[in-house]
Structure formats: structure tokens, C-alpha cells
């Protein structure tokens, strides 16, 4: 194939194992959705329909990447990325657009508006990407690959075919990290949906103990496993980017925000120093964050 098929890619839906009562593991499908988990089957990633957002003064719309909101790669069609004012699963897309010099409008939705906006979205979730006036795309990984393709069309090697397998492997690994981390997050946010616990379970000492045990187990087992693999991969490729390239790709746009999430101090029982012993990973993150386009993005978008 000369170019990846965007419509066949959907990694926002996963089969995830989460601790249930008695710490028995059960499988169920999860769909990323702004702080909640919804059991749903896999879905097609492409829709030909307009998104009717209820525009209010609390929406923040910022055009990124250039003075115009349209690009010569899609004449007459603007790009609008709609998500909450957090990094989340949209950050990789924002970074890819920035590195690819693809102009886009970064629309931030307030959490208290989500209930009214949700029914207007294709799958009842964010992010969504509006292309022109009649196309709305869901699924963040589809958007990421689309951003990489647009960059390639501009001569920027963000999704080079020569490294396609290495890029896809790294993307798969990043999604695996997110999949295994997700119970650590959602058992704290919504233990009823995440683990089948009664509503009365939330806020109890028993929930706090469960979350502590799940996160401690993740950091002891899965975290060490993944970080050791990444550390070794960076060592073996001469500390290039994660796909073995001299310049960043969409795989780095996905992996670096995931790695940085561990050091933000937003998860109890996950120490902000957890990456200190991984010198190659720390150097890798620093190299990515110091790229001019990435540095400019974060300078203008403090998280």
C-alpha cells in the first residue's frame, strides 16, 4: 500500500482487563470517553456528517500552526480539533499537526458543556476532527495517522513509509501502556462502570485501598516491563527517536505524552520520580520536548 487506509484504523476501543471484586480479572470493551467507560463494540472511524456544536463563550478556539486555518493539502477545507482543555488522547494529534506545520483550530470544550454537546458527536465522545464543513472524524488514532499523512504530503517525514512497521509497532506499544494503565484511573473515577462495584463503594476506604493496590501493582509490574523495553529499544537504536528515525514521527507524538503523564503527579501512588532511573527515556523525552515546534506548542498551551 502506498498510503495507510485511515478508515480501517481504530485503537480507541480496547478489550481491557480490570480488577473486579476479589481481584478477579474480567475482560470487557472500553471506549475512551471523557472520564467514563462505555462498553461498546468497535466502530467505524469515518463519518460524512456535520457536527453541530453549541457554540458558547466558554468554548476556546485557537488557530495553531499558521495564520490561516486552511492548508494547501486540503484546499478550502479547514481543520478543527475539538476536545477538552486537557492533554488526554488529543495531545498526540495536536503535536502531530504542530510538527507537520499543518494549521488547525484547537477548540476547547468546557466539562460542564459536555452533556449538551455529547449527543451531537458521532460516537458520544471526544475528540473529533472537523474537516471542512461536511466531514467529522472520530477516533484519535485515525486523526493521528491523518495528521502524519498531511505532513508527508508537505515533505515532512512524520509518517514515512520506510519506517511504517516500526512506527506502528511503537504505536501499538503505546496503546498497550494506556490499556494497562486505564484501570488505575477509572477504578478511582467510576468504580461502578470500571469494576461493577455498587454506587456506595465510591469514596470509601475500601475503594481507596483498591486503587492503591491496583496502581502499586501496575508500577511494580507493567510499568517496569514497559519502561525497561523502551529503555532497551532506545539504547539499541543509538538513542534516536522511538521508531529508529533521526526525526520525530507520529509514534513519538503518541508516546512522549504518555510517558510524561507518569511524572505529572496527578495519580496517587505513582511517584513523579518514576522515570529517573531510565536515562535513555529521560534523554528521549527532553529531545522531543526541545524540538522547536513542540516547545512552541507548549509555550502557547500551558497544561
Short description:
40% of the residues lie in helices and 17% in strands. By secondary structure, it is α+β, with helices and mostly antiparallel strands. Strands 4, 5, 6, 7, 8, 9 and 10 form a seven-stranded mixed β-sheet that branches. A three-stranded antiparallel β-sheet has the order 1-2-3.
Task: Please describe the structure with a list of short key phrases separated by commas or semicolons.
303 residues; alpha+beta; 3-stranded antiparallel sheet; 10 strands; globular; disordered N terminus
Structural class: alpha+beta
Query: Portion of residues in helices?
Result: 25-40%
Q: How would you spell out the order of helices and strands?
A: EEEEEEEHEHEEHHHHHHHH
Care to count the β-strands?
10
What would you call the quaternary organization? single chain
What low-confidence regions span 5 or more consecutive residues with pLDDT below 50? 1-58, 66-73
Query: How far is the first residue's CA from the last residue's CA?
Result: 38 Å
Question: Care to describe what's here?
Answer:
The chain is an alpha+beta fold and 303 residues long. The protein is built from 10 helices and 10 strands. The strands form 2 sheets. Strands 4, 5, 6, 7, 8, 9 and 10 form a 7-stranded mixed sheet that branches. A 3-stranded antiparallel sheet has the order 1-2-3. Strand 2 and strand 3 form a beta hairpin. The N terminus is likely disordered.
List the SSEs and their pairings.
Blueprint: E1 13-19, E2 25-33, E3 36-38, E4 46-47, E5 60-64, E6 70-71, E7 74-84, H1 91-99, E8 104-109, H2 114-117, E9 128-131, E10 135-138, H3 140-153, H4 164-189, H5 191-195, H6 205-220, H7 222-236, H8 250-261, H9 279-289, H10 292-300
Parallel strand pairs: 7-8
Antiparallel strand pairs: 1-2, 2-3, 4-10, 5-8, 6-7, 7-9, 9-10
Helix pairs in contact: 1-3, 1-8, 4-6, 4-8, 7-9, 8-9
Amino acid at each position: 500500500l502506498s498510503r495507510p487506509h485511515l478508515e480501517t484504523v481504530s485503537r480507541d476501543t480496547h478489550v481491557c482487563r480490570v480488577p473486579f471484586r476479589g481481584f478477579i480479572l474480567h475482560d470487557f470493551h472500553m471506549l475512551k470517553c471523557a472520564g467514563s467507560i462505555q462498553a461498546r463494540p468497535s466502530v467505524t472511524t469515518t463519518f460524512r456528517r456535520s457536527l453541530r456544536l453549541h457554540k458558547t463563550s466558554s468554548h476556546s478556539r485557537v488557530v495553531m500552526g499558521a495564520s490561516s486555518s486552511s492548508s494547501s493539502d486540503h484546499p478550502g477545507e479547514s481543520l478543527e480539533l475539538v476536545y477538552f482543555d486537557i492533554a488526554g488522547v488529543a495531545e498526540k494529534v495536536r503535536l502531530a499537526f504542530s510538527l507537520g506545520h499543518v494549521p488547525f483550530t484547537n477548540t476547547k470544550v468546557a466539562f460542564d458543556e459536555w452533556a449538551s454537546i455529547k449527543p451531537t458527536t458521532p460516537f458520544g465522545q471526544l475528540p473529533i476532527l472537523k474537516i471542512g464543513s461536511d466531514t467529522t472524524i472520530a477516533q484519535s488514532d485515525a486523526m493521528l495517522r491523518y495528521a502524519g499523512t498531511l505532513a508527508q504530503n508537505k515533505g515532512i517525514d512524520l509518517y514515512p513509509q520506510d519506517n511504517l512497521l516500526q512506527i506502528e509497532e511503537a504505536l501499538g506499544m503505546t496503546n498497550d501502556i494506556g490499556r494497562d494503565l486505564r484501570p488505575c484511573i477509572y477504578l478511582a473515577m467510576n468504580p461502578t462502570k470500571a469494576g461493577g462495584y455498587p454506587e456506595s463503594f465510591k469514596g470509601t476506604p475500601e475503594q481507596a485501598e483498591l486503587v492503591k493496590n491496583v496502581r502499586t501493582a501496575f508500577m511494580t509490574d507493567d510499568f517496569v516491563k514497559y519502561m525497561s523495553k523502551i529503555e532497551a529499544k532506545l539504547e539499541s537504536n543509538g538513542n534516536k527517536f522511538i521508531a529508529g528515525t533521526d526525526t520525530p514521527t507520529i509514534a513519538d507524538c503518541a508516546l512522549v505524552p504518555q510517558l510524561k503523564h507518569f511524572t505529572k503527579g496527578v495519580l496517587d501512588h505513582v511517584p513523579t520520580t518514576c522515570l529517573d532511573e531510565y536515562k535513555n527515556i529521560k534523554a528521549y523525552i527532553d529531545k522531543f520536548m526541545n524540538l522547536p515546534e513542540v516547545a512552541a506548542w507548549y509555550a502557547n498551551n500551558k497544561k
